[in-house]
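As described in the Methods, two query proteins were run sequentially through the folding procedure within a single session, without resetting any intermediate state between them. The first query and its resulting structure tokens are shown here.
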Amino acid sequence: MKKEWFFDRFCGSRIAVYAEDGKIVEVGSERESAEHALGNIYKGKVANVVPGMQAAFISCGMEKNCYLPLGEGAAVFSTYDGEARTGGVLSLKEGDEVLVQLVKPARNSKGAKVTCDLSFVGKNLIYLPKTDFLGISRKITDPETRAALLEEAGKLRKSGEGFIVRTAAAEATKRHLKTESEYLRRMYRAVLEQAGSAPVGAVVYREYELPVKVMRDSLGGGVTSIVVGDPELYEKVLRLARMRSDLDEKKVILYRGARTMFAHYGLTEQIYGLVNPRVELENGGYLIIDLTEAMTVIDVNTGKYTGENDLESTVYETNLLAAKEIARQVRLRNIGGIVAVDFIDMAEESHRAGVESALTEALGADRAKCRVLPMSELCVTLFTRKRTSEGIGTLMLKPCPHCTRQGFVYSDRFMTMRIRSAVSEWFAQGYRAVIIDLNRDLMEEILKRRYLSEELEGAWRGKLIYFVPHRTYHEERFEIRGDNAPVLTLPDDAQILY
């Protein structure tokens, strides 16, 4: 099996894509200017305490105050096997200064969620400086290995602190674990030192950027190649690869083609499909994925599939395919919270149990914690999934301005990504100039944000790009054409890109 990672940066964002035999399995994205990444630690101030909610709201320099549960304690680490020896309710009052770590980003009208149970993530260990907890990844299944690793982690920790043994630790030596534990402790001491003089709202620890996190958490010796579409990002990934004993730096490749990297490798349409509510199944059936503020609802349909035997078998086969694809889609889109799946009605209890088992097994491969509830007689299944980071939808979608922000439309960044890919295709065909007809507001946003400035200084150097704005164009409509004429004929309101 060909296992490939792809890294690129454009439109002010970084994107990482993992594909197996050309089919996307995992996608990560982050904005380069993002100030509020998951894992960041802030020096906050208690704005108010709400005893009835057992919660405090913390001023951390964000638009909205952050939500801090006072009674959560070590429950945040319950996704790992282990047991905390301490707990209780935090005692805070208005005006207290406190270090908090971002565990869930702000979304829609809700502020970000934070915790006082700080954690510092390494490749093999997670260090918990203020939590008396010893845990281990459930993906380490060998009893002897688990016992040995827990014993070693127990020797490394001091009174009142804890460690979580990550999956990668199964291949680590005692020396590796000791060295990493000491490094993570030094990191915590540096945070405390910086927090002493930092103002309220300051970020005193920043989580690693996307390429570093992927290299730390996801890459292993089985990777076939790592393809990078940006020279600056390539140098960073190459340096990280050289630090890995299990990764040959020769596998890191800088893509230099005229087309966009994702288009060249046949991944563009798969990425675009991650914001499409309709997902096709291999047998002609399909899913409809509907995101709401409260939960995600997924509807399973037979579509064109009529089966070869009876109706019950047709439905069962479609539901089995749907269960596997649902697990893949929630991972790709990083859907979190409650997910309700409306499977097609099945009469036989054994079929309902089979589909429930297939969904549970497929979700078991997800690094995020998932919990599946029993299927109801109506063939509706609920499951929960912990969101581990911002999903690709955060980059590609924005609240619709036309329906009181209840729905979503393509974001300006995503539209720029599509335009970028289309422009590259025209230049790859040998054209020296392209003319783009598009929505006026989108044009102004692209010019203001300078989303395509790096392309003009690099791959598009010497090329000409003209925008022709239209007030009547929908925000998601654009048309592009190439032109090699010595003199271009353009309307008076056309604007050259930068």
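Immediately afterward, the second query was submitted; its sequence and tokens are:
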Amino acid sequence: MNLSTSSTLARSLALPTLFVALALVGCGGGNDAPPPPPPPGTGVAAPVPGAPGQPAVAPPGVPGQPAAPIAAPGVPPVAPAVPVPPVAPSGGDSNFGTIALSPGFVPDPHIAAGVSGGNVDASTLNPQCRGYVSSRPDHLFVAGGQFNLVRFIVNAGSSDTTLVIRKPDGTYLCDDDGAGAGTNPAVQAMLAPGTYQVYIGSYMQGQNYPYNLAVTELPSFSVAQIPAPTGAVPGAVPAAAVPTGGAPSMANVTPGFMPDPQVLSGTAGGTMQASQMNPACRGYVTPTPNHIINATGNFSMLRLVGSAQQDTTLVVRTPAGAFLCDDDGGGNFNPLVQGAFPPGSYQVWVGSYATGQAIPYRLAVTERPQLDATGF
């Protein structure tokens, strides 16, 4: 073989080898291991949200919620806006006190008094409300449980008053003449536990009227059963002359109790006709009972015997809501109610037979079958 032939053969063999080597390099082939990762602390770190010099990274969003704003480096994040609830027109104080009641309260009705009116147009609180009210509530009503029905009834005589109740959720219950007699308001509703602001307004600005407010669970209780406030009705019997009710005295009895009788006392009479509770009842009584008798056992026979120097009557409301009434069953114009008394709380009114009377009395609670008005 000559020299030129050898050179040509060598070039022919070298070219394919070069092509194969270039192909392997371009495809990343080869058996060499990949270079090791840089040691810790060297190389380029992953982006850190909010770090200077790095792009900000938004946190994962919540479905249905707008994405949170991304704070610029060195700028404190801004808290998202929180809706502000409606502001009550006044604080937690009241003009005439707090009424705290739970379902089944006794005595029922609860009576509170005050003076209506103010400088706040009630329609600015709610378009359905009427009259002018004070800038703070006249009463706070604290519901200690779920009321399936509770009624607020105002008696201001012939004076035109309104009623506004702000519920704990900021909504309002309002009325003008709903008590069914003249210009007196009433509201009834189911109320959840909580604190309610009660405003008694005057229909016209600049007017102020004394009133009595009744809170009751009795569905048939009416404004006529609430005594008119002093000064509201010209010619009315002065409040000092006739009992208007107060906190009733309490008695707890268990079958076989001693001493027997238990003797209660008070002043009979009032401004409310007992027949409004039950047509069979007689006399005039206060809106609130004179006594509460708690029977802590089952009495097959319990007797309530009245004793007074003048004609008195007796009304007993049982735990079931029924009324037991008597006029002269105890002899000599004295009343008597007797019978089976299951366990529970009994409301007791002692009335005068005629209106405008205030009569001292004694009332015996006894199991003795022969005890009468002369025996205690």
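The first helix runs from residue 3 to 26. We note this only descriptively and draw no conclusion about the first query from it.
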